[in-house]
Amino acid sequence: MNEISTTEIDIGDILREGFDIERVREDFPILKQEIYGKPLVFLDSGASPQKPQIVIDAVSECYETYYSNVHRGAHFLSQKCTDAYEQVRGQIATFINAPSENNVVITSGVTESINLVAQSWGRKFLKKGDEIIISEVEHHANIVPWQLLQKEIGFEIKVAAIDDCGEFLLDQYKALLCSKTKLVAVTDCSNVLGTNFPIKEITHLAHGMGAKVLIDGAQGIVHKGADVQDLDCDFYGFTGHKIYGPTGVGVLYGKMDVLNSMPPYQGGGDMI
Fold first, then answer.
1. Which residues partner with 158 through β-bridges?
2. Which residue of 51, 81, 126, 272 shows the fewest CB atoms closer than 10 Å?
3. Helices and strands (H, E) in the chain, number of each type
4. What is the pLDDT of residue 192?
């Protein structure tokens, strides 16, 4: 069997290079407290890490000095808040190497990002008799939205296997691909095992069958970043709170031709 893939960050190497753990702890005010008489050591960062002071300060600055509705007013505060919001869209595009900020859709998290694709792209383009492929190690956020839509439309969900070490079985995945395959929706990195999937190869093979590809990057982007143009995926979703950002913020990247083909996901004032 293959060895289990690991992230590219080796804690041993970091410690040997003199990485100042205490300096890092200073960036997180919550770690200054004691729990049961002991200094707090937080071991649940894979689910959601604590927030550094710079993030806390940025959120506080917004509420204290320029908070207003985004895209909803012509007055000074609304314009300033809107400018800050749109500036972040551009920064995200740079962060993931998207061609433009117009490729970046702001969501409430990766769960909404995937649901957006399911309810907009999926509802328009999937039909009875079609097939989509997910993997055995997907988070529920990349399973349940497709199951709900499947009940309405009647397409088939196929599951790509992994081996006993959690490695993606590329040959078995190839066997699942066919002319009926319309979408491949897989994780970049398992939130349970930490194994990395061969995303570029998965995407290349899917595109060879004319299928779109959605990547759940919630875990992968934390450890290795993302270059969506290099990956060539059609969709890439991730969530802010897993990369030390505020809760309730997420991103959906989409290729422009794909985004332009999708009907509105929700209705509201921002689309008028």
1. 133
2. 272
3. 12, 9
4. 82
Give the up-direction half-sphere exposure of residue 50: CA atoms within 13 A in the CB hemisphere. Answer: 17
pLDDT of residue 272: 74
Residue 242, domain member (yes or no): yes
Q: Which of 234, 265, 267 is nearest to 118 (CA)?
A: 265
Q: Which three-class secondary structure state does DSSP give residue 57?
A: helix
Mean pLDDT of the chain: 91
Q: Render 186-234 in DSSP notation, one character per residue.
A: EESB-TTT-PBP-HHHHHHHHHHTT-EEEEE-TTHHHHH---HHHHT-S
- CA 144-176-115 angle, to 5 degrees, is 20
Q: Look at residue 18 and tell me if it is in a domain.
A: no
> Are 184 and 131 in contact, with CB atoms under 8 Å apart?
no
Burial class (CB in 10 A: 0-12, 13-18, 19+), 79: middle
Q: Is the pLDDT of residue 78 over 90?
A: yes
Examine residue 162 and state whether it is found in any structural domain, yes or no: yes
Structural domain boundaries enclosing 121: 100-263
- Please state whether the predicted TM-score (pTM) of the whole model is above 0.85: yes
Specify the length of the chain in residues: 272
Tokens of 80: 């300033």
| 229 is a domain residue | yes
Angle in degrees, CA 69, 70, 73, rounded to 5: 65
Distant-in-sequence, close-in-space partners of 147: CB < 8 Å, separation ≥ 6: 157
Range 121-124 contact pairs with CB under 8 angstroms and sequence separation of 24 or more: 121/212, 121/235, 121/258, 121/261, 121/262, 122/146, 122/149, 122/153, 122/183, 123/149, 123/153, 123/263, 124/261, 124/262, 124/263
- Beta carbons of 155 and 132 less than 8 angstroms apart: yes
Q: What is the total count of domains within the chain?
A: 1
